[in-house]
Amino acid sequence: MNEEQSEQHSAQKLVKQFSDDIVREAPDLLKAVVHFGSTTNTKTKLLGSDIDVLLIVDDLVRVMSPEVIQGFRVIVERVASSISPRFHINTMRITQFWEYARKGDPLLVNILREGMIVFDTGVFATAQKMFKDDMIKPTEEVVFSYLSNAPKILNNAKWHVTRAVMSLYWSMLHSAHAALLAHDIVPHAPQQVGDLIEEYFVEPLEIEEHYLDIYRHLEDFMTHIGKREIMTASPQEYDRMHEKVELFNKKMEELVMRKELKI
Q1: C-alpha closest to that of 97 among 75, 118, 67, 122
Q2: Which of 138, 166, 187 is the last residue of a domain?
Q3: Domain total of the chain
Q4: What whole-number distance in Å separates Cα of residue 104 and Cα of residue 107?
């Protein structure tokens, strides 16, 4: 048995233990426990990989109230954490499972293709047989659903870049606050910080004007974002700003240490 096969066997044992424990804890709720992902495939390098598990729960007989959902979540987290930190548990209601199967959703198709049944009341095995018999295929509905999601996800990526720029600004603002406070200067609002840096640090030649320029530039950038005149930053712009904020923060730290050590 090679290393990959040994790791796969180990993962399967962990999933079996998890399945036995979770079925014992919630026998009326579970319809299937399926092991899928990289740890089912000996051709992939999987040392330390997450162990992906799909739980299919019954929402036809049981009312999935917030209390039931929360209680089940607590049980799953407790059982999983007691066995291995590598578990990545995915839960799907049986109605959602069949809706995904009806559409031929790629997320479910991949699990049907490679999933290994650990516990099943006949739900997953039926769908897996239908898939192998070519009865579950991507529909036009799911094709256009994925197509319509693409621009939304792209916009979401842009928003993450925007949030990263905002984090740079707040990082810079915090370090500037620290330097001013160390010199017994208390800004009453963020809008005052730039002027205070100029008055107390640049004009007395404590720091070069270059650092004020860094602050002003990112402050202006944030103003444009707030007015929606700029929606995001390019990766190159973000990298440049990140580098400059690092320099700015180091200089603010120098001002703090100089004051504290009275240099």
Answers
A1: 122
A2: 138
A3: 2
A4: 9
Cα separation of 111 and 109, whole Å? Answer: 5
Same domain flag for 125 and 58: yes
8 A C-beta contact, residue 87 and residue 80 = yes
Segment-wise mean pLDDT, segments of 10 residues, the chain, 263 residues: 68 95 94 93 66 95 85 95 95 96 93 95 97 93 90 89 94 96 92 95 94 96 88 89 97 91 63
Rounded to whole angstroms, the Cα distance separating 131 from 150 reads 26
Q: Which two tokens stand for residue 141?
A: 């509905």
Q: For residues 103 and 203, state if they share a domain.
A: no
Nearest Cα residue to 217 out of 236, 196, 242: 242
Give bridge partners of residue 54 from the DSSP assignment: 34, 90
Q: What angle do CA 228, 229, 231 make, to 5 degrees?
A: 60
Q: Which residue range is the domain that position 183 belongs to? A: 144-260
**What is the pLDDT at residue 45?**
54
Alpha-carbon gap, residue 217 to 245, rounded angstroms: 11
Rounded-to-integer distance, Cα 112 and Cα 263, Å: 68
Question: Each residue of 193-232: pLDDT tens digit?
Answer: 999 999 999 999 999 999 999 999 999 999 988 888 888 8
Which tokens in the block code for residue 46? 């999987």
Question: What are 119's strand-pairing partners?
Answer: 33
Tokens (6 digits) for 207 = 């720091």
Look up the CATH number of the domain holding residue 121: 3.30.460.10
pTM: 0.64
Rounded to whole angstroms, the Cα distance separating 19 from 32 reads 9
Alpha helices (runs of H) in the chain, residue ranges in sequence order: 3-25, 66-83, 94-103, 106-114, 123-132, 140-182, 190-197, 209-226, 235-260
